[in-house]
């Protein structure tokens, strides 16, 4: 009997889910709404809890975000800015982790949206950074996967191809090791659900076609017109 795959190693920085969401939201807003950046605590909370471009959806409080900021600032990942009556915060991710801009963009997207293929990452990165092609995205991902232990170890991992999937997805390791078995099973379940939906639609379309043919035949036998076809 073969043994199950063990969780993969994680980098020296290990964040909670809320800390990752706070950090990635700051990274996103710095690029997408620069006029409103740095962010106040309330604006940061709204960004963390927004319903679009987030996986999973969260409902974190200001107190939870404040606690996350208190952890991120000593790690040199977030800074509080001065010169405003309201405390505002900005990320320092690229320098704090020691990665180039392109790698920081990919990590931010993975923290916000969960595991994605290289193609999905390139598409989702449009407002952050324009990658020339998928190959360039894959190059930075592979570089982060091969990151040496001296630099903190890998930052991403390429997940096994899920059943029915055409491409493999990538996941970040900033929140710790990734259970590849669980993530693969999750995507496989999603694929099966989609397959079942298509089967139900095909079955319903076949039933409608059969009913339409029956109605048309009855109308012809009765000598009446089919004024309201189904």
Largest sheet: 3 strands, antiparallel
In angstroms, what separates the terminal alpha carbons? 56 Å
CATH class of the largest domain: Mainly Alpha
**How many helical stretches?**
8
Write down how many β-strands occur, each being a DSSP E stretch of 2 or more residues: 5
Radius of gyration (CA) equals 24 Å
Instruction: Quote the beta fraction.
Output: 5-15%
Q: What low-confidence regions span 5 or more consecutive residues with pLDDT below 50?
A: 1-10
Mean pLDDT over the full residue set: 85
Structural class: mainly alpha
Q: Which percent range fits the helix content?
A: 40-55%
CATH superfamily of the largest domain: Winged helix-like DNA-binding domain superfamily/Winged helix DNA-binding domain
Strand order of the largest sheet: 1-3-2
User: What is the number of independent domains?
Assistant: 2
Q: What is the CATH architecture assignment of the largest domain?
A: Orthogonal Bundle
Please trace the helix and strand order, writing H or E for each element: HEHHEEHHHHEEH
Shape: elongated
Instruction: Look up the CATH topology of the largest domain.
Output: Arc Repressor Mutant, subunit A
Please sum up the structure shown.
The chain has eight helices and five strands. The chain has helices at residues 17-32, 41-49, 62-72, 93-97, 101-113, 118-124, 134-145, 180-222; strands at residues 39-40, 78-81, 88-91, 156-158, 170-172.
């Amino acid at each position: 009997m073969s043994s199950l795959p063990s969780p993969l190693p994680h980098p020296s920085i290990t964040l909670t889910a809320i800390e990752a969401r706070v950090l990635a939201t700051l990274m996103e807003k710095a690029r997408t709404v620069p006029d409103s950046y740095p962010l106040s605590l309330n604006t940061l909370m709204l960004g963390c809890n927004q319903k679009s471009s987030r996986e999973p959806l969260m409902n974190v409080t200001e107190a939870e975000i404040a606690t996350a900021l208190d952890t991120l600032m000593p790690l040199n990942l977030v800074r509080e800015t001065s010169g405003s009556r309201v405390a505002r915060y900005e990320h320092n991710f690229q320098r704090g982790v020691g990665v180039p801009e392109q790698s920081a963009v990919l990590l931010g997207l993975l923290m916000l949206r969960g595991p994605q293929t290289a193609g999905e990452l390139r598409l989702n990165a449009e407002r952050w950074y324009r990658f020339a092609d998928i190959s360039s995205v894959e190059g930075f991902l592979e570089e982060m996967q091969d990151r040496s232990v001296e630099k903190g170890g890998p930052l991403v991992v390429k997940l096994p191809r899920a059943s029915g999937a055409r491409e493999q997805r990538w996941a970040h390791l900033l929140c710790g090791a990734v259970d590849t078995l669980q993530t693969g099973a999750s995507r496989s379940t999603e694929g099966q659900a989609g397959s079942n939906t298509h089967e139900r639609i095909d079955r319903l379309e076949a039933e409608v076609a059969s009913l339409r043919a029956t109605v048309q035949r009855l109308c012809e036998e009765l000598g009446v017109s089919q004024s309201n076809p189904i």
